[in-house]
Amino acid sequence: MIRFTIRRLLSGVVLLLVVTSATFFLAHLAIGDPTAGLLGNNATPDQRAALHEQLGLDRPLITQFWDWFSHAVRGDFGTSWRNFQPVSDQIALRVPVTLSVVLAATLLAAVVGLAVGIATGLRPDGILARVLKVASVVLFALPGFWVSLVLVMTFAVRLKWFPAVGYVPLTQSPSAWLSSITLPSVALALAAIVMIAEQLRNGFMEVTKQDFVRTLRARGLSSRRVTTHVLRNASPAALTVLAVMFVGLLGGAIVVEIIFNLPGIGSLTQSAAQIGDIPILLGLTAVTVVFVVLVNFLLDLVLGWINPKVRES
Amino acid sequence: MKRIWRATVVAVAAFTVAACTNTTTPAGGTATDDIKIGTLLDITSWDPAQADIGFDGPYLSAVYDPLISLDKDSKAVPGLAKAWKYSADRLTLTLDLRTGVKFSDGQPFDAAAAVQNLQHLKAGVRSGQTYANVTDIKKVDADTVSLHLKKKDDALLYYMGLGRSWMASPAAIKTKSLATQPVGSGPYTYDKGKSAPGSEYVFAKKSGHWDDKTYPFGTVHVQPIADPTASFNAMRSGQLDVAYANAADIPRAKGAGWNVASDVATWVGIQFTDRTGKQFKPLGDIRVRRAINHAFDGAAMLKSVGQNAGVATNQMFPAGRPVYDKALNGRYPFDLDKAKKLMAEAGYPDGFKVTMPMSSIFQPWQPSVQQTLGKLGIKVKWKNLSPADYQKNAATFPMFVAVLALDSNAAASVDGRITSQQWFNPNPSTKDFPKVHDLVGKVEAATGEAQLPLIRELNEEITDQAWQDVWYQANNTYFSNKGIKVTPITGMMFPTLRFVQRG
């Protein structure tokens, strides 16, 4: 298990290195000199030249990369080119927002997806299974922004149950926090729910046909205990989907954050890309890769714990 | 199985009830002492030297007092400077300061503080240009400072009033803490505990502020909302009292009984970066520039792309202001035949090839430009750039599609849009046009009201020279609930708090 853990961690570090280096060079290639965008309409060439020097853009690209990298490994991602504040401070402000929404969406998807998956797995020809089939097609076909807008129009504009926009930190008011993340989380979770439920249902149907289930039933185990065994064997696929969904939700959060005006890492990525704030983009990339590596690492651990064959492979 | 279902139903119900306990906050302004303002962008920086004029106004005007403010006609009015006077040669500006004002950290506002602030602003990355002509800033006595200029600067007071003279605590400037924590003497204090940076900023009214009557609201909430649909939905759900609006929503806003306030903010069209023909021969011929002006139907462009929110004009001085001349709008009527004739006279009956930059922001106009120039035989090769790169590289092309901010002050417009080198105007080339050069000289020699007729003449001359191809001036629009009035100010993308009033 220790070798398994070390192997996974090392591959995560390599991924982090490759992705951040590629982002650095691609961003510089695509954005070039950002000083005009940063200084606005009235900037003179002299001002732009001064900012160019202040940001260290007059140095060779490889020197700039080494400077960024040597600081980044110590947790210092530099300062934003927009407001000259530490990148880490700004990301620290934004991460809780995105994590709140993505974790709530993941939780919602896991709980509801699990329940629907088990129910439809036990009764594959029942009404719920048919509803799931239709829902999975519909929810995949509908664009996320449209679903979000329908939720806003219904629950915020008409019913006024939830706010249409904005985020309240958990530390400020737990109930207002929950209220502010509910609609975005639901918008993100809907497609994930049907995907997890579908995976679990398919897994259930597959596993219930296996010999060991028939043996368990023949031994007179209660249907609850049989279901528990089936669930344990059917869950890896759903768990993998859940982990993939989590990573996908981090990326999908950008649309939801814009529609619900949440100050998360998605909207920060968008604004940083628009004005060419490369230090922010690099910091966000590093943080996102760390999340992806961590989630995959945790998934591998859980799958390894459930199924020893995974550890051996 | 039933237990799983029961647990799920209970969990979802509990989640919903808990989430709904804090439902949408009621609209503030009209019913309560609060006002909730939705602007487009998050604050750039709390440090006035690093802030932007454009959308930072509502935030900065809450916590800072300016030395000089602007009134609704963009005329300089007293702020922390009670009065000011120029020397006879206009090279010294003396400011008489308000006394008895304190910053929120207890430090007094006096001449020493003003000098320190002005030096900080002069050195600022974004604020420095306003003070480019200022060579020295001196304390005259405890409540008087003087600014010494290397050349006459008729736009200085305007830019100071626009958002370049916010005064901050000298102690905070010294410790460089302003970027994250504003310390000013403004009408409100920033309530960090109730704010969620990036989502909502809350400001509580200060008692006994010297300009108390100008700020009628007890608590001000400012929310940056980049998406116009989100902003409109926030108004509809009662989360906002004032919103930076999309003109397409005006009919629905009027239907909802909201106040709608608009004024011109930018000009939209084609900027010529070479009018002498040194870099790109065809544009050095006035007939080619005039042909391009005749070829575009500005009114149609305004209607189709600009949602009819603005003024169809070929001028770059803001519509409705003293320099703007309605009669000049007939100078280049849409006339393709005339345009083709001018091209033929210039020696380009079959047009020419030109490379123009393009980025996602300007794509709404791209098909019209392609089609219209194509009718004159001008074949455009597009060079795609990222939005961030557009501003850097657009002016390296002979002409480009432009959306450029307007200034409500005529002298500032002359300096910022015609005579000085800017990213969009790398070759002002006024010296190559004798009449323009002569008029610029006369404008620079005159002062105050005497400048206006000369700038009007200059406007006529550069329109005649087809200095650029303006299609229309686009509005900025603001919605507000009944009982709240917003006064748009050309030059400020979102007006400062003094322009958000009951009424």
UniProtKB/TrEMBL annotation, chain A:
Membrane topology label: Multi-pass membrane protein
GO cellular component, one term: plasma membrane
Protein localization: Cell membrane
Keywords: Cell membrane, Membrane, Transmembrane, Transmembrane helix, Transport
Superkingdom to which the source organism belongs: Bacteria
Main localization (coarse): membrane
ABC transmembrane type-1 domain residues: 95-303
Segments passing through the bilayer: 97-122, 134-157, 177-197, 237-260, 280-306
GO biological process terms held by the UniProt record: transmembrane transport
InterPro entries according to UniProt: BPD_transp_1_N, MetI-like, MetI-like_sf
Pfam family, one: BPD_transp_1
Family assignment from sequence similarity: Belongs to the binding-protein-dependent transport system permease family.
Name recorded for this polypeptide: ABC transporter permease
Organism: Streptomyces silvensis
UniProtKB/TrEMBL annotation, chain B:
Signal peptide location: 1-18
Entries under Pfam families matching the protein: SBP_bac_5
An example molecular function term from Gene Ontology annotations: peptide transmembrane transporter activity
Tagged with keyword Ligase: no
Coiled-coil regions, chain positions: none
BP terms from Gene Ontology: peptide transport
Keyword Transcription part of the UniProt annotation: no
Protein name: Solute-binding protein family 5 domain-containing protein
Species name: Streptomyces typhae
